[in-house]
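Trying the structure run again after the queue cleared.
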Amino acid sequence: MNLYVGNLDYAVKESQITAMFSEFGAVSSVKLITDKFTGRSKGFAFVEMPHSGDAKAAMKKLNNLNLADSKIRVKKAESKKV
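Done. Tokens:
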């Protein structure tokens, strides 16, 4: 299951996100979205978890969690509409 993680502080690193979600199960990938010109975080990421039960548990526990002075949002990622 692919999850959207939003409202991230710009200082949060991929390794922190991986560690946070790994507490709930296996994490296939974490992609922190960055500005292609500055390399600075855009404040959101996508986390891929192979087991939907683990992803749902992470979503429930981590949504609205305070991380680095920001209340993060975690929800199921929506498919890109073409």
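The longest strand covers residues 41-48. Worth checking whether this holds up in the mutant runs.
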